[in-house]
Write a structure and sequence with these properties.
single chain, mainly alpha, MetI-like fold, 2 domains, 12 helices, about 0% strand, globular
Amino acid sequence: MYLNVLRYLARRVVFALAAFLFFIVAIFTLPRLIPGNPVDVLVSRLVMQAQANPELIHAVHRKFMEEFGVGLPLWKQFTRFVAQLLRGDLGTSISMYPRKVSEILALFLPWTVALLIPAILVSWAVGNFLGVLIAWRRGTVLDRVITPILLTINRIPFYWFAMVMLFIFAVYLRFFPIGDTYRWGLSPGLNWNFVVNYLHHYALPFLTLVVISTGGWAIGMRSMTIYELGSDYILFADLLGLPQRRLLAYAFRSACLPQVTELGLNFGLMLGGSLLLELVFNYRGMGSITFQALSTLDYPLIQGIFIVLAAAVIAVNLVVDIVYGLVDPRIKVT
C-alpha cells in the first residue's frame, strides 16, 4: 500500500517537474520573440534623461551588452540562464539596474499573495455555499433570479469589472480610494495607522476579485449538486426516510470534490485576472512590475516573474492533485 502511494506521489512530482521545465523553455523564448533590444531601450532612456557624451553612451551600451549577454546566440544565452537558475540566481534587472530580480520580487510578491489567496478562499467558500443553496431551491424564484446573475458575472472580464467597481465606489460614491496600495507617505509596518489605511485601499480590489470569481464556483457547484441529488444513493436514502438536511450534506460532500480540483485549475486564471486588476487599481503587486518589465523588455525581470508565477501554479495544482487523491475514497492508488 505504501509503495503504491509513493509511486502515485512520484508520478505527480515527475509530471510537475516536466511541466516546469517546459515553462522554463517557454519563459526564456517568448520574451526574445518580441522585437527590440532591452539594452537599446535602457540606453535610449538614459540619453533622454541626461545628455551624456556619445562615447560614454557607447561604453555603457557595450558594458550592458556584455554583462547581460543580449548579443550572444540564443543557445549561449539559454545556457547562461539555466546555469544562473541552478545556482538560485534570477539575475540582475536591466531596467532597474543594478537591483537583483529576487530583491524586486521580494518587494512586490507579498502584496499579490495578500490579495490573491484570501480572495480565492473566500470566493470558493461563498460560491460553493450559493451553488448548494440554489441547487436545493432549483426551479424557485431564488434559482431563477440568482442563476442568471451568476452566469453574467462569470462572463465578465476581470479588468472591465474592476473599472466599473472603481468608477462606482471610488469615483462616484467615494467609499474607497481611487487607487494605490496605501496612502502616500506611510511606511509599511504592523501599526494601527498603516493596517487601517491598507485595508481601506485593499477592500475594493479584494471585493472585485471575490465577486467576479464567485460566479464560476457557484454555477459549477449548482450543477454538481443537482447531479448528486439525482443519484441513486440519494434517492435510496430519501426512500429510507433520512432527513432532507442529511441528504443535502451527502450531496454536498460528493459535489465538493470536483470543486477541489477546479481550485487548482482556476488558480492560474485568477492569478492572471489579479495581475490585470492590480493595474486598474494601481495596486503595488506583481501586476505593476510585470507591466514595467514587459514595457522595457527587461529579460531577467520577465523571466524571474514568470518563473515564480509558473512555479506557484504548478505547486498549487500538485498539492490539489495529491489532496484530491487522499480525500476522494473512489480514487484507487495503483
